[in-house]
Amino acid sequence: MSQTISREIHPWEQPFWKPVPGKEGVLFYLVAIHALAIVGLILFPLPGLPVFGMALLFTALGGLGTTVCYHRMLAHRTLKLNHFTEHLLIFWAMFNGSGAPTSWVAYHRLHHSHADTVADISSPQQGGFWWAHLRWLYQSAPADPAKWCRELNHGAYKVWMYAQVPLILLSLFCGLALGWQGFFWLGAIRLVYSLHMQCFVNSLTHLGHSDQGDFSRNVWWLGPLQLTAWGENWHKNHHSNPGSARLGLRWWQTDVGWYFIYALEAVGLATHVKRPTPRLHSPLDSSRKGEQKCTDPSP
Ligand SMILES: [Zn+2]
Ligand SMILES: [Zn+2]
To answer: Distance, CA 34 to ligand 1 centroid (Å)?
Structure first.
């Protein structure tokens, strides 16, 4: 009599080229922007100053949208933003390829709740570097907004979900107004750059040691490359203190998102800003219990 031993097949055990049903479009998008970016870099390796400046500006606005609005405000509720500012930042985050706020927050809260365990959606400790960096985007089942961020699953946030495809098409093609050089640099090259700078937070900053319950680590050199998302590279700080709007905890840990929040607070556009407490400065102060707090959407 033969005995059948069955076990769950993890998504990272699938062939890397195989998207989960419903995410074929994500894989197509990723392949398309990389192919266009390579062609663009061959044809226009050195862009003109106006095109380069605009690409930088769009990248910077998108970076602020993701780190300040998506991550610190919507996912962790570490501040409140004026409504107009909030939705302006959502626009720039989506324009920069970060997807709709509801799905971003659902994935992110799932990640914190199960960081680096088998239930984590994007851990390099489970699926390897490329799983955490890109593959999970098209090979993992969507995180359920009804479970992870019910408060973002209706109203204006829902409208942003429907705007996702038109906005990314606009983002990809808007540079045509400045000719072919603008098309490649303002579109695919910018989107590929921004994509990888965000993906490094999932892959590279989770390749540390498990002395605090997860493998998060600070990666100093990633910060300058992230431009306005400089601050996200202090990822160990963040996993240790998910309730803090400030990610750079030492004076020398540059945190552009924090400076932006500080300025918004000064002019009354950000309120209820949660600062790290002195207790939270300790590098040894971390627990999985603390991380789970971020799944609570209440302020
Ligand atoms: Zn987070
Ligand atoms: Zn993380």
So the answer is: 27
Per-residue model confidence as pLDDT tens digits over 22-79: 999 999 999 999 999 999 999 999 999 999 999 999 999 999 999 999 999 999 999 9
Point out the ligand nearest to the CA of residue 291: 1
Ligand nearest to the CA of 104: 1
* pTM for the predicted model, two decimal places: 0.90
Q: Which ligand is nearest to the CA of 294?
A: 1
CA of 207 to the centre of ligand 2 (A): 10
Contact 215, 125 (CB under 8 A): yes
Among residues 83, 88, 40, the alpha carbon closest in space to that of 61 is found at: 88
Predicted pLDDT at 279: 56
Question: Looking at the CA of 216, which ligand is closest?
Answer: 2
Q: What is the DSSP string of 105-137?
A: HHHHHHHHHTTTSTT-SS-HHHH-HHIIIIIHH
Residue pLDDT, tens place only, 141-193: 999 999 999 999 999 999 999 999 999 999 999 999 999 999 999 999 999 99
Two tokens at 286? 């971390």
Q: Which ligand is nearest to the CA of 236?
A: 2
Ligand 1 geometric centre to CA of 238 (Å): 7
Domain boundaries, the chain: 20-295
Looking at the DSSP assignment, which residues form a beta bridge with residue 270? 81
